[in-house]
Amino acid sequence: MFRLLLLLSLTWPAIASEERARQVIDEMEQLYRGDSSDATMTMQVQTPNYNRTLTMSSQSYGKDYAFFRIHAPKKDRGVATLKRAEEMWNFFPKINKVIKVPPSMMMGSWMGSDFTNDDLVKETQLIDAYSLVLLETDNQYKVTLTPKEETVTVWDRIEYTVSKDPLLPLSQAFFDEDGEKIRELTFHEPKEYNGKLMPSIMEMRPLNKEGHLTRIVYDDIKFNVPEITKETFSLRNLKSRF
Predict the structure, then answer these.
(1) N or C: which end of the chain has fewer CB within 10 A?
(2) Contact, 41 vs 219, CB < 8 A?
(3) For 113, what's the count of Cα atoms within 13 Å in the CB-facing half-sphere?
(4) Number of compact structural domains in the chain
(5) Whole domain around residue 133: which residue ranges?
């Protein structure tokens, strides 16, 4: 009995730490989604050679369904992306063609930005695909995520920093297999949208590409929209014109 109590006393802090880490990350994953969401956004892509601005809409339903459509500029209008679970398709209206994104292209750039196709597919699966370790300071939670054995990823680990009060994401740092920080996602300017406080700006900065930055600004977002159902996320809707 003494040995059992000693073992529990040694393992309980680690168990509690992982459980709290899962709660924190789960709240962060729910922040931009809810049961369903409908958002309008502006994406700004900066490089040493050009700057590009796109306006778009997005819808989501639970963890597995997401839809993105470009509204401007005119030359990209109608280009759309559909995500269902771990599958992904792009629609290009100029050639009226739907192209499924193969696994070999998942780390490729999404819409010419510093976000990847994989970011869209995996963004709501962190607590399922990674093991979590929590470090706590007076003002922040710092969660280190390491991929589980069955998880397919190029990242050796992700370090996720969250403020305690209010409970909001601050940054995500992505490290390669050599332990080098390759890119960083930061969150800025919290605003209240339909009663929910959340960062209104996300910035993805690849640290191995000087002068590159992608900024996403949430112009508006609504949650728990009754009109958004699983049927919204069909290949037929992907090809619809507007």
Answers:
(1) N
(2) yes
(3) 22
(4) 1
(5) 2-238
CATH number at residue 28: 2.50.20.10
CB 193 within 8 A of CB 169: no
pLDDT above 70: percentage of residues in the chain: 90
Handedness of CA 149, 151, 153, 159 (dihedral sign): negative
Q: Which of 172, 160, 123, 130 is nearest to 148 (CA)?
A: 130
d(CA 103, CA 89): 12
